[in-house]
Amino acid sequence: MEWTGACYADKPTVEVPIWIAAPPERVWELVSDIELMPGLSTELRSVEWLDGRTGPALGARFVGRSEHESLGEWATTSHIVEYEPPSVFAWAIEDPEHPSAIWRFTLEPRDDGTLLREWMQLGPGRSGLSHAIDRMPEKEQKIVFVRMREFERNIGATLESIKKLAEDAGEMGV
């Protein structure tokens, strides 16, 4: 894991890589299928395309509904801000010009497979974490650190699930 930033204003980031024994095109099918993600995530419960969309494209929007033991339930609107099949898929949460977070998958052919990286950045816009920091500003560094570690674990679990799906499909000749 790699994460930077001691406080929310620093736009802390985390990135987790994984190598997958499947071609980028197969991995791309999985990472760009946002409707698959709730089944792979510990927090994301559902997603729904907006504006009559049925799949990803630059500028497309979707609503994600999430749940966390400490933070409760919430819904956010995501805007696809990078869409370069089969290499980059990224979305900004809420305001794409001032997002509460940005999430990105990058795929790179490597050693007869794919190096998949999932990256996320908190801020610069406000999020649910901002409210916790507002209540306990003296604990901002700890709040951000704990949340980034959660993201690291959750991203790792999601990537392991994507790896299994992609490699199992390859074994079945799909």
Taking pLDDT < 50 over at least 5 consecutive residues as the criterion, the unreliable ranges are 1-5
> What proportion strand?
35-45%
> Going by CATH, what is the homologous superfamily?
START domain
**Which bin fits the share of residues in helices?**
25-40%
CATH first level: which class?
Alpha Beta
Question: Termini distance?
Answer: 31 Å
The CATH topology comes to Alpha-D-Glucose-1,6-Bisphosphate, Chain A, domain 4
Q: How many alpha or pi helices?
A: 3
The coarse overall form would be globular
Would you tell me the overall average pLDDT? Answer: 89
The CATH architecture classification is: 2-Layer Sandwich
What number of domains? 1
Order of helices and strands: EEHEEEEEEHH
SS elements, strand count: 8
Radius of gyration equals 16 Å
Question: Can you tell me about this structure?
Answer:
28% of the residues lie in helices and 37% in strands. It is α+β, with helices and mostly antiparallel strands. β6 and β7 form a beta hairpin. It is built from 3 helices and 8 strands. The model is unreliable at 1-5 (pLDDT under 50). α1 (24-31) crosses α3 (140-171). It is globular and about 50 Å long. The chain has an 8-stranded antiparallel beta sheet, with helices on one face. It has a single domain (2-169), classed as 2-Layer Sandwich (Alpha-D-Glucose-1,6-Bisphosphate, Chain A, domain 4), CATH 3.30.530.20.
